[in-house]
Amino acid sequence: MRFVEKGAGTPVLALHGWTPDHRLMLGCLEPIFEARPGYRRLYPDLPGMGATPAPPGIASSDDVLAEVRRFIDAEIGQEPFLLLGESYGGYLSRALTRDIPQRIRGVAMICPTGVVRREDRARPAHQVLRRDPALDLGDDPRFAAEFAEMAVVQTAETVRRFREDVWDGLEIADTTTLARIEQRWELSADPESGPPFTRPSLILTGLQDASVGFSDQFALLPHYPRATFAVLDVAGHNLQFEQPTLFNALINEWLDRVAAE
Fold first, then answer.
1. Beta strands at 39-44 and 3-6: parallel, antiparallel or unpaired
2. How many domains does the chain have?
3. Among residues of the chain, what percentage have pLDDT more than 90?
4. What is the DSSP string of 51-115?
5. Any idea what the CATH number is for the domain that residue 248 is in?
6. Which residues pair with 26 in a beta bridge?
7. How far apart are CA 113 and CA 115, in angstroms?
8. What is the pLDDT of residues 227-240, one digit of tens each?
9. Residue 17 domain-assigned?
10. Is 52 a member of any domain?
């Protein structure tokens, strides 16, 4: 898998969500890690997204997970590492804590997929809670529609972050490949089918997240007995830049807990 690497020290693997690319994670995490030396950050593009191709043999989430495992073996080896995942990346992260828990020092999940089937999720209706009345979304109606469909906070800053962190990845995703993988999107084994993950964890959800919701993820808590679980108001599926102050504080606190052990 193609990836961007930053810094040196304890490995940190950051897995982005469905359809965008590594910039989704790099945009929200680099400002944090730039102030915390001692971490080697790895930002891969998942198969079919960003610059990572997906040959016909990659036809399910099981196949994507296998590619992530190969990436870990190749780039991190047996060294313990920190794991962060957003949305679909959170779903894969749950599976990794089942498969290789002894290698993961801590896990943080941002708006993780809880219930796989969209029609079975408990999701609030989309709503906009903050909007700049003079907001300019530009001349591209596709961009405006994608932003407006998900954004709870609609300001010049969230437009900028969506354009830089999300939109460019959406534009280059291999939609044919993603459609193939979506036919077998659910992992064949329950990510929580193994023993509880007992290292420092963080689960962040948005109260207005109309994509994956916030309440289904509460059922994950028994499996993560060292988890901080936070539901952020005025935050949707892009809570990392709709509530950046809270996001930064909670990620930093999780990093402190991991470092303390």
1. antiparallel
2. 1
3. 98
4. T----TT--SHHHHHHHHHHHHHHHTTTS-EEEEEETHHHHHHHHHHHHSGGGEEEEEEES---S
5. 3.40.50.1820
6. none
7. 6
8. 999 999 999 999 99
9. yes
10. yes
Q: Which of 106, 97, 65 is nearest to 194 (CA)?
A: 97
**Rounded to 5°, angle at Cα 207 from 247 and 86:** 50
Closest among 111, 109, 87, 107 to 97, alpha carbons compared: 107
- The arithmetic mean of pLDDT across residues 127-142, rounded, is 93
What is residue 250's DSSP assignment? H
Q: Are 60 and 25 within 8 A, CB to CB?
A: no
Q: CA-to-CA distance for 70 and 232, rounded, in angstroms? A: 34
Strand locations in 162-236, DSSP E? 201-206, 227-232
Average pLDDT over the chain reads 97
Rounded CA gap, 68 and 64, in Å? 6
188-208 tens-digit pLDDT: 999 999 999 999 999 999 999
State the average pLDDT over residues 97-120.
96
Tell me, yes or no, whether 186 lies in a domain.
Answer: yes
Query: For residues 90 and 168, what is the distance between their CA atoms, to the nearest angstrom?
Result: 21
Residue type at 78? Answer: Q
Give the model's confidence band at 154: pLDDT under 50 very low, under 70 low, under 90 confident, else very high.
very high
In a domain, 161, yes or no: no
Q: Give backbone dihedrals phi and psi of 161, rounded to 5 degrees, phi first.
A: -65, -40
Range of the domain at 92: 3-127+173-260
The whole-number average pLDDT for the span 220-248 is: 98
